[in-house]
Amino acid sequence: MEIFFASIILFLIIEGIILIVKEFKRPQNFPPGPNWLLPFVGSSKYLKKLSQELGGQHKAFDYLSKKYNSPIFSIKLGRELVVVVRSYELIKEVHSREEFDGRPDNFFMRLRTMGTRLGITCTDGRLWQEQRSFVVRQLRNVGYGKSKMEEQIHVELNEILEIIRSSKDTPIWPGETNFIATSVINILWTFTTGAKIKRNDARLIKFLNLLQKRSKAFEISGGYLNQMPWLRFFAPEATGYNLVKNLNSEFYKFFMEVINEHLMTYSEDKSNEDLIYAYIKEMNEQKDKENSTFKIDQLVMVILDIFIAGASSTGITIDLALMSMLIYPEIQMKVQKEIDEILNEDSEMLKYFDKKKMPFTEAVLLEVQRFYSIVPISGPRRILKPTTLAGYNLPKDTTVLIGLETIHKDENHWKDPQNFRPERFLDEKNNICNTERLFPFGAGKRRCLGDQLAKSCLFTFFVEILKEFSLEKCESDLPSNDLLPGMLLSPKPYKILFRKRKN
Q1: Distance between CA 34 and CA 42 in Å, rounded?
Q2: pLDDT digits (tens, 9 = 90+) for 393-407
Q3: I need a surface site. Which of 155, 264, 278, 415 has the fewest CB within 10 A?
Q4: Which of 448, 438, 461 is nearest to 132 (CA)?
Q5: Spatial contact of 87 and 70, defined as CB atoms under 8 Å apart
Q6: Phi, psi for residue 38 in degrees, rounded to 5
Q7: CA distance 295 to 286
Q8: Which domain holds residue 111?
Q9: SS3 of residue 339 by DSSP
Q10: How many structural domains are present in the chain?
């Protein structure tokens, strides 16, 4: 008996040693990177410290890329193999190859989707293909990307202009008052649920608060909790686990109230009124299929993905576009001159298509997206089968992160990337050019679902605000190009003085 127990102990010791050796062993011909300092932790602590010292994870990646003199490098976060790509050629390749279309199936990604592997953003394979195709098709059916969307944008635009007018020369910050983010959410809400929400509606206020809390919570939990999920059992508050879990529950209840209202009022003739009715129709048609991907929980996650994809990033980009006009008043004057030449008081409703008539204004908005790069690191992607990239071997299930800011700030291409210079997007004939290295919405099959709405809102809101108002600095709350780090980069608090322009 003693020999038996001794054998078991010896076996466990050997297995433990093998497991630890595997933790330190790099795959053959793997990209260069920092040593994997601790078993089961990897370089997580090192990356976190580096990010804090340099002011963001994207800056830590920039440092590591330079340290290893490579546009592709590796790092081990917890037990997860991660590869970071930071050149246009490699990023273009990742965007276009099917083996990079996967999403990691880890604790953090499941936590984002309420403990499931559902929705569109965080899924892959058949479920992702079916759901994305259906959502894109049905959103178009209810008017997304068409004249109906333009009309909804103008309804929200009029409310934005009224809010600015009512400020009566009192400086305000769009990011603090959320009047732009509220408009984007309301447009998405209309297409998803078929009804507009008033700005003072308790549901809309609650939803905005949930989105803001969620963003902060994921900034807290996105590090160690993903790499060492067992920490939630010992420090659920400090790791942000309890906060995210509670917010997920609130989101689920919030969306289920709307879905249940649709279930109670559903009839087949309503299936083209909004996305939820269309989804219910599809669920009913596929209810007898054992492998159907159309379920209530999946619908909840689809709705969450739509709002996350469209609301926060669009609001921040418009905020930065307005802020840049304060920092570069000479550019503001050129934009307004072009607007005045093209538009007048009797002009018909401004449409996104009209951007072709205003190339300098369009160039300014492209430069805002390049210069600020609010999504400095996109992804993450999961490699679906063993492959190679830049001559390195990448095992199946390796996570790939895409350094978008790198190509937006590449000196070899842009020459002076640290300068805000819209003219870089105009050729000698004043036509838009040089956009192939700009990826504010990603590229390929994983391109952002909300890009059409984002671009239309950005152009329409920006042009109409500058048509009616001149933007002036408030000396006590000056703007800065130094953005706050986070999952999305965002402006530091500042204020705009909106002055009514003279006709």
Answers
A1: 9
A2: 999 999 999 999 999
A3: 264
A4: 448
A5: no
A6: -130, 140
A7: 9
A8: 79-500
A9: helix
A10: 1
